[in-house]
UniProtKB/TrEMBL annotation:
Active-site residues, Swiss-Prot/TrEMBL: K10, D136
Protein name as annotated: 4-diphosphocytidyl-2-C-methyl-D-erythritol kinase
One term of GO molecular function: 4-(cytidine 5'-diphospho)-2-C-methyl-D-erythritol kinase activity
Enzyme class, UniProt record, top EC level: transferase
The organism of origin for this protein: Alicyclobacillus acidoterrestris (strain ATCC 49025 / DSM 3922 / CIP 106132 / NCIMB 13137 / GD3B)
Domain GHMP kinase C-terminal: 216-271
UniProt pathway annotation: Isoprenoid biosynthesis; isopentenyl diphosphate biosynthesis via DXP pathway; isopentenyl diphosphate from 1-deoxy-D-xylulose 5-phosphate: step 3/6
Length: 297
């Protein structure tokens, strides 16, 4: 039996850093939103108790450095199943881009193995497994929208009907998330996170207000350490005349559009001058995905 799970990327609509924790991590408060840019995770049961991963992307590790392999290991250990799995990973989400591509692959692997082995685990139980792999994995198990706190693993899920289009621009720059967080100063911390106001705007479908509420406390740090990302952001804003945002620790930049017509105009303008531009849109939870309109060719 060959089974397919989609691994959806995410963007950060807000990202506030509250403090540095005793364990060395940072306390965050952020609104995360799934988008329909996705990897494809194909799963097939193996009688031999081994995990094999193949990918169309030669730059992706296929051993236990890959979060999908780690997810398969955790799943088999937690369920006590004596079997193996073959994972074929079709990468579409840029790697190390602030879009949670690896975490989403891990989450899709957990969901897919739950179906493959008919274990009947709930999403809550799968999210608990995911927390052992990475802070973003629990969110990716559910998908949709959530406020993420702690290191990002404590979730308050948000059910809204606000639909927006997302234009992604991926600079070919490697950004170290650890370096970005190390570059934070106490002045970058806040005790007034923006997540409450963003969630209110989502629930009230204030599509004209939301782009102005997007905020990422890591963005100035990334721009200072990687000036080429800031230069690209300025170029995108000049071309589109719309606010440009950054997801996670970067380097991926994004714009929001309330209508497909506006999104198409921005996409066509960007494709005329840039290579790695992706047309995407909000999606809901994995159990209730929104009806999606066609993206431009």
């Amino acid at each position: 039996m060959l089974l397919l799970e989609r691994a959806y990327a995410k963007v950060n609509l807000t990202l506030d850093v509250l403090e540095r924790r005793p364990d060395g991590y940072h306390e965050v408060d952020m609104v995360m939103q799934s988008i329909d840019l996705s990897d494809l995770v194909w799963l097939e049961r193996r009688s031999a108790p081994t995990i094999v991963l193949e990918s169309n992307a030669t730059y992706v590790p296929t051993d236990d450095r890959n979060l999908a392999v780690q997810a398969a290991q955790v799943f088999l250990q937690e369920t006590g199943i004596v079997a193996g799995v073959h994972i074929n990973l079709e990468k579409n989400i840029p790697v190390a881009a602030g879009l949670a591509g690896g975490s989403s692959d891990a989450a899709a692997t957990l969901r897919g193995m739950n179906r493959l082995f008919n274990t009947g685990l709930t999403l809550d139980e799968l999210a608990e497994m995911g927390a052992k792999i990475g802070s973003d994995v629990p969110f990716c198990v559910y998908g949709g929208t959530a406020i993420a706190r702690g290191r990002g693993e404590r979730l308050t899920r948000i059910d809204h009907r606000c639909h927006m289009y997302v234009l992604l621009i991926h600079p070919r720059v490697f950004v170290s998330t650890a370096d970005i967080y190390q570059g934070l100063n106490p002045s970058d911390f806040t005790d007034e996170p923006l997540s409450t106001r963003m969630v209110q705007a989502l629930l009230e479908e204030q599509v004209d207000v939301i782009p102005g509420l997007v905020d990422n406390r890591l963005q100035p740090v990334t721009f200072a350490m990687y000036p080429e990302v800031q230069q690209l952001s300025e170029k995108v804003e000049m071309v589109t005349r719309h606010p440009v945002h950054m997801s996670g620790s970067g380097p991926t930049l994004f714009l929001l559009a309330p209508t497909i017509q506006q999104a198409n105009r921005m996409y066509n303008a960007l494709r005329g001058i840039m290579r790695d531009v992706y047309f995407s849109q909000f999606v809901g939870t994995v159990s209730s995905l929104a009806n999606l309109q066609s993206r431009p060719e």
